[in-house]
Amino acid sequence: MIKSKTLFQQLPLLRNIICNKRAGTLLFRLKSGADVHSITITEKKVTGQDVSADLLLLFTKPMYSYRWDSKIKLTSDSFSYSLIPSICRSIGQVSWSPNRQHNLTKAFSLMPAIQVTNPQPEIAWQDMTTYQTLYRFTKTHQKPTPANFLASASDDKEEIRYLKVLMMAYCLGLISKPKPSKKSNIASRILKRIRKV
Questions:
Q1: Whether residues 66 and 48 fall in one domain
Q2: Average pLDDT in the 105-128 region?
Q3: Which member of 70, 85, 139, 189 has the greatest number of CB atoms within 10 A?
Q4: Does 84 share its domain with 105?
Q5: By the 8 A CB rule, do 122 and 84 touch?
Q6: Within this chain, do residues 142 and 110 fall inside the same structural domain, yes or no?
Q7: Nearest Cα to 25, choosing from 13, 35, 11, 12?
């Protein structure tokens, strides 16, 4: 297994798997020598012996080590669920310790300005009001960074809701870099021409 180099390395790993529609089995440990957890992911399904518990672990605790196996590993006692609703449901149920919440907030705050897309109906995020708040924030603020979005929370409970919706949008690939405006494209072309003179 590969030892995790950063806190919550499973988040970019999951994002990569989902966005690139990869299929295989994620094996991970939370501590050295601990039991190996296993989740099989395909384009639309997530399968395992206890999918809800294992997904919850992925979103609440850092991985110690992991391995991505492109083979589909299923057993007779495995259960399959829809991938995207399962991820949304697990993130909605997350409860972090103050230290882990701080580390996650710090990690998201390092991200540059973002844009988000309107989710498809199958995402079924349980707190669509908060998602719409994030969507409007990225459309109306001059510098819509996750740090500024989290800082706009009125209290700790709202900050947790904001952190959860950022995690959901990130893992499902709903977050991306803002596209440069036509004006900035024209300005950059003019600058390039000036530099060539």
A1: yes
A2: 82
A3: 85
A4: no
A5: yes
A6: yes
A7: 13
